Input
Amino acid sequence: MILSGGLVVDGTGSPAVVADIAMKDGLIVAVGDLSGARDPDVRHLDGLVVAPGFVDIHSHSDLSILGHPAGTSKVLQGVTTEVVGNCGLSVAPVDSGETVAMLRPYMTYCEDSSVEWDWTTVSQYRARVAEADPAVGIELLAGHNVIRGSVVGLDDRPATSSELDDMCAMLDRALTEGARGMSLGLMYPPSSYADEAELIALGAVLARHDAMLASHMANYSEGLLDAVRAMIRIGEASGVRVQISHLTATGRPNWGTVSDALALIDDAVARGVDVAADFYPYLAGSTNLSQTLPGWAISGGWGALRRRIADPDDRRRMRTHLDTKAWEDFLLVSTESDPDLDGLRIPDAARRRGRPVSDLVLDLLAECDPTIVAFGRSEDDLRAVIAHPRSVLGSDGLAVDTFGSVGGAVPHPRFFGAFPALFQKYVREEALLTLEEAVRKCTSAPAERVRLSDRGTIAAGLRADLVVFDPEVIADRSTYEDSRRVPAGIVSVIRGGREIARDGVML
Output
């Protein structure tokens, strides 16, 4: 195949040029003026951008890509590679099926109940992915949640010396078997129970493998700066490359602190610490409802939480904590026990049930752990992260179909639109980024963070993973009320030299 006359944005940040691209046997074989070449399949792309396939550095498709190998929501926005296992919520490595049963209830955000989790090692998971033969490439981060859960369990305590040795050995094997790094979920148990010494020791293992440490930090609100300082300390002490996941500040009183966090990153980089961040271009996030509880409430697992909800004194303490939340900023999107509540703001759901808001929250958590969308973020903070030279785009979404229940009845719009949204709003409409810089943040920069040397740029000898889009049309058409909508302007998606989507339709 030859792509002729497109505006080639090669992913490096270099100025775009009009050029032809020839592909053969899954690779790019030539870039330049190929007007004299003979090929039965020539696509004329005048006025269209040709970029490397997008590399989604922050994905949660660990299970959904096995249940839906087409990866529709990612492919149709131009993604050709996903890095799964983020926020500590990885599916490998684990030590046993018993640990899987213990930890799977904590995976509700990225759950696909149609998938039997019958592997334990990274190698076995990679084999399952290869068997499924998904449309997108899948790279895995080993999750701290599953590693700590396998060795220490759900206890809120420091690891013993021998347990730490076992965790380091487990991580070392995972990296040897092909994991690209480790992720932390420092707001999610049991990852939230680790002390800094544990994370430094694990970081040293990662550093020996030149692997990345991606962190959902312990605090994104009033403790944001302390959380960033902690990640910098871990990187400095262990030598590991640190990736701060979805850098943002939640809650109006904390708006503006993102610029201070970026300054901390700049200072650390100047000292030789390798720290970067990722973002998604929205003013709302998504997580589990249980994350609104104080940490002590979820210590010991779901059985312990539900006993506390039933205990009058513990329930009163939890209600006092929950009463401080701005609940109008929270939207229910996947409530297993009562799907009729999905799509409602939590105060509206409470009125429907005739319950005070904090009691409604505890009632729901006694039944299941709903997925929520949480608003309350600053556009200025988001612009600051997007514009920073060490930031890259990561959707924080799942690969799902345009219909179905995986990801919730109304998943976050980022599932379908994160990459088009960047080019629509922050390149075309606001000119915050140049076209070339935006492409770099979606391609070569994330590929370099996870050491994917065969993709992320357009050059002879590299994988023929490409996306063709119309820069005047590309747009995110998903909304918080109707989110399973295919984006506009993605003309073609090519992976390994084979076209897998055209004009918003999977091939």
Observations:
- The two ends are 16 Å apart (CA to CA).
- The chain has three domains: 2-50+458-506, 54-284+376-449, 295-370.
